[in-house]
Amino acid sequence: MAHVDFNRNLLFFLLKSPTPWHAVAQMTRMLDDAGFQPLDERDVWQLESGRGYYVVRNGSSLVAFRTGKEKPVERGIRMVGAHSDSPCLKVKPNPELRRKGYFQVGVEVYGGVLLNPWFDRDLSLAGRVTAIDDNGDVQDLLIDFRKAIGFIPSLAIHLDREANNSRTVNAQTDLPPVLMQVPEGDDTSFNELLLQQIHKEHPDAGIARVLGYELSFYDAQPPAFVGLNEEFLASARLDNLLSCFVGLRALIDNDGAEPALFVCNDHEEVGSLSAEGAQGPFLSSVLDRWCGLENRARAITRSMMISADNAHGIHPNYMDRHDENHGPIINQGPVIKVNHNQRYATNSRSAALYRYLSDELGLPHQTFVVRSDMGCGSTIGPITAGVLGVTTLDIGVPQWGMHSIRELAGTRDSFILYQVMKAFMQQASVN
Ligand SMILES: [Zn+2]
């Protein structure tokens, strides 16, 4: 049951990755274990053939690649992309709210959060803190409270009789989580709470003062197999850490003969334009340094990108939200995403290569196109295609509840996508 082991590792990865920083830290651990060498963007790079390397930017985006036996200009690069961020509630810079003895924190909505499921969950908190140590040096530290420290209580139905008909969520007033009860006159600051947590998690770092942070709340309930036959995976951040795990495993596990690359970018959920986002220069810079300028342009013409981001599976209670011929079903294979208006970058050639590889392995695939009377989502595929000029396929496993605090995907689809991606990374010619 290879797919059971694969999914167990996937669930562990999700558990350990409450934020993009933690996800990238997990991925670098996997790369270290597989013998990949870290590269620093500040250094001169001397890359050798037949080796694996990785680069991290801002701690939240990563490019890992295998140089292959021959140069990219001769062989092209097999690329897989995904994103490391997920919609969530981030703590505001001056977050303290004290009302009736309750200590709450103000939160900013990051990305397109489905807000209702955030109520009545056991919330934990994690992210990156930037702080100054006893020597006056600035340090970045990851923290993760790893237990339920916050809660957003629903208003009782008795106090809101219309809740089941017309409940709306005001992101400013309804969302601040309750962290604790404090006595009258208490002036505990949020930074003091962070400092205590840093001393717990990093006792030797000698941290004196917190200077800044990027912290998000997350569901403390661990990822789990769900369903009478355990055919589903339930977790936060399946969009898109599932694709990150699948893509990275495919890069690590393939035979390494061909130039291949995995990229995961932060900030997809807010449009991808940032120093480390897919619309920024990160991947281009790595390719320039690996290939050289002219050879990069030549290599791209032989390359292909598979942009992996989850798709909407048809929901049995809301079947009219899909086109009748394009309603992907969970556990019936990854979904090739088509939108000729270029919300997805798939074209007939990139789709053909995927279908060919998948058919050769005897594995199923599905196709999605949005209803003609509805708008279409998008992802890093068209952005990366536009930045690099690379032939691109948009694909993803079908899931329910996208951008909810707990999403649902199938146990078969992740492993199927992994097998095809691995074959893609070993494929002699991709464009
Ligand atoms: Zn996504």
State the gist of this model.
28% of the residues lie in helices and 27% in strands.
Fraction of residues in H or I helices: 25-40%
Cofactors, ions and other ligands in the entry:
zinc ion
Mean pLDDT across every amino acid position: 96
What is the strand tally? Answer: 20
Tell me, what's the shape? globular
Strand order in the sheet with the most strands: 1-2-3-13-4-14-18-16-17
Structural class: alpha/beta
> How far from one another are the termini?
34 Å
Rg, alpha carbons: 22 Å
Low-confidence parts lasting 5 or more residues at pLDDT below 50?
A: none
Could you give a short account of the major beta sheet? 9 strands, mixed
The proportion of residues in beta strands is: 25-35%
**Separate helix tally:** 11
Please tag this protein with its features:
nine-stranded mixed sheet; 431 residues; binds zinc ion; alpha/beta; six-stranded antiparallel sheet
Please explain how this structure is put together.
The chain is of the alpha/beta class and 431 residues long. The strands form 3 sheets. The chain has a 9-stranded mixed β-sheet, with helices on both faces. It has a 6-stranded antiparallel β-sheet with strand order 8-7-10-5-6-9. Strands 11-12-20-19-15 form a 5-stranded mixed β-sheet. Strand 5 and strand 6 form a beta hairpin. Helix 7 crosses helix 8. It is globular and about 70 Å long. The chain starts with a helix and ends in a 5-residue tail after the last helix. The relative contact order is 0.18. The mean pLDDT is 96. It binds zinc ion (ZN).
